[in-house]
Amino acid sequence: KALTAEEEARRREELKEKLREKLELEKRALKVVERLLDDSVAEDFLVDCAKMITPANYKDTVEERSIAKLCGYPVCPNKLGKIPSQQYKISTKTNKVYDITERKCFCSNFCYKASKAFELQIPKTPLWVRQHESPPQIKLLKQGERGSSGEEVMLSERCLKEEDVENPVESIKDPVLPLVDSHAQNLIQKRITVEKLSSCLRNIVGPLHLTMIDITTDLNNLVRTFRFTNKNIIHKTPEWTLIAVVLLHLLSEVSPLVREALKTSASVEYLNTLMVELGLQEQDFLNLVQLFKSPAH
Ligand SMILES: [Zn+2]
């Protein structure tokens, strides 16, 4: 009996020791994160850090750095400039939609990609298990390797194969591609369109003595009827402005408020000036509006 009591005490002491060790490792990880918040961190140090932190620690680091207006990639000394407020970005080069939520934390596509590459190499095992593991072989991305614009949102839809139909459970479990369905794609495209139109209209409504509140609901209802593709949502700013003005005229069909606002001589003059800036004749513009107004028979 005396022996088992002694054993019990020893086991408890071992447990306490393990707990202490675990807390020490967590404390060390937080200290490392603190060091990674310095303006610029040596590459060797960053490589060395990987074994002492978790991927979650690193994510915190990136976030903390970007809040401090520093590029999220610890080895980069650059300050972050004006941070874009939108969540999505269309690349005119690749015609793809990118989620830039994470990309916004970095000064460049390179730093974003390098940081992601580093993050993926941090071991996912708990800190106190790692003593028995060989340290990870970390390789940092080198300057000159291509960067990344952000998480690609629109992934190509996977074609259904015959075996998927025969074996539907298998295909549901298949984790290969996160399927972004066409509904989700459409929502993103709609959101981009509304965002672009709103940013143009915000500048236009003032001189017309309208407010965004006067037009938002009708505009949303109209945009909801559009059929989007990857290509027809990519326009230059002057083109978005023209689209916005045409749509505003279409809204006058359903909104007496907009109709009256567009009739005033000040509005007519303002819109004419705008058309001149866009390099259009008034008649061109009216033709364009008419094109939308008359249903194609
Ligand atoms: Zn950077």
Automatic annotation (TrEMBL):
Residues 48-131 form the RTR1-type domain. Its EC number is 3.1.3.16. It is found in: Nucleus. Residues 2-36 form a coiled coil. The keyword ATP-binding does not apply. InterPro entries: Rtr1/RPAP2 (IPR039693), Rtr1/RPAP2_dom (IPR007308), Rtr1/RPAP2_sf (IPR038534). The keyword Nucleus applies. Keywords: Coiled coil, Hydrolase, Metal-binding, Nucleus, Protein phosphatase, Zinc, Zinc-finger. Belongs to the RPAP2 family. Associates with the RNA polymerase II complex. PANTHER family: RNA POLYMERASE II SUBUNIT B1 CTD PHOSPHATASE RPAP2-RELATED. This is RNA polymerase II subunit B1 CTD phosphatase RPAP2 homolog.
